[in-house]
Amino acid sequence: MKSMTVVGNWKMHTTPQEARILLRDILRGLTHLREIHGSGPWPRVLVAPPFTSLAACQETLRDDEFAETVWAVHLAGQDVFWEAEGAYTGAISAPMLLASGCRAVVVGHSERRRIFRETDEEAVLKARAALQAGLDVFFCVGEGEDQREAGETFAVLRRQLEPLWERLPAGAQGKLAIAYEPVWAIGTGRAARPEDAEEAAQFIREDARRHGWEGDLPVLYGGSVTPENAGSFFRLPSIHGALVGGASLKAASFLGILEAAWKAAEGSL
Ligand code: PEP
């Protein structure tokens, strides 16, 4: 049995009204999954809506209709800025995420790195600020296609992780997870081969240990995860769940992935 985590990254999708509907459908589906899987170990479930839909999701999670399942679902931010407040137009801080009901935040997503030109250093500043404020952090790393073809995958992972290990605040244990997301697999329908994901996850966990990390470090896989292929990742010894983009936008496919996580958590995959 292993503890499993599934994070739905809704990216720039869902108005507050749409977010409410999607989350309600997920909660309804979880009630059903619970009937099937009983009170065994639940996977940890998080959804990361756009900032503008957090309030609607927070309200939905207070709805009595879903009292049996709301406790199992938590909110996450999709990004965070490293300062707590100030003249940073458009930015959202860790205390603001906490006050909006978030328990966690995704940091260093490849879309932030590629489109918004975020550097390795900036991603680490964000992770550090979030951890210090008390948020859990899903720290994303992953190589591009050219880098994989050139045999540079581990060098890229090492480069992205090195500043993180150097600047981790005390107390990060139990609050940090790494999301291994090969860039070429995100949103393309071309998931990594499970053996490659396992190899990368082993490398990440080993790299953490080399830098003094003690105990377990959960590694999630992200990149075109679907209900059909989720089990092939969740079965792997070094993968502890998934960061899911496209398939988290429909309750049915997200629930299919959650069911695979449930089976992995109870050891019946
Ligand atoms: C992601 O956004 O982190 C992601 C993995 O997206 P997708 O599942 O659509 O590939």
In a few lines, what is going on in this structure?
With 269 residues, this protein is α/β, with parallel strands linked by helices.
Write structural notes for this entry.
The protein is of the alpha/beta class and 269 residues long. It has one domain (5-266): TIM Barrel. Helix content is 42%, strand content 15%. It contains ten helices and eight strands. Strands 1-2-3-4-5-6-7-8 form an eight-stranded parallel beta barrel, surrounded by five helices. Helix 1 packs parallel to helix 2 (54-60). The radius of gyration is 17 Å and the shape is globular. The termini are close together. Phosphoenolpyruvate binds next to strand 8.
Helices, strands, pairings?
Blueprint: E1 5-9, H1 16-37, E2 44-48, H2 54-60, E3 73-77, H3 94-99, E4 102-107, H4 110-115, H5 120-133, E5 136-141, H6 145-149, H7 153-167, E6 176-180, H8 194-210, E7 219-222, H9 230-234, E8 241-244, H10 251-266
Parallel strand pairs: 1-2, 1-8, 2-3, 3-4, 4-5, 5-6, 6-7, 7-8
Bound molecules: phosphoenolpyruvate.
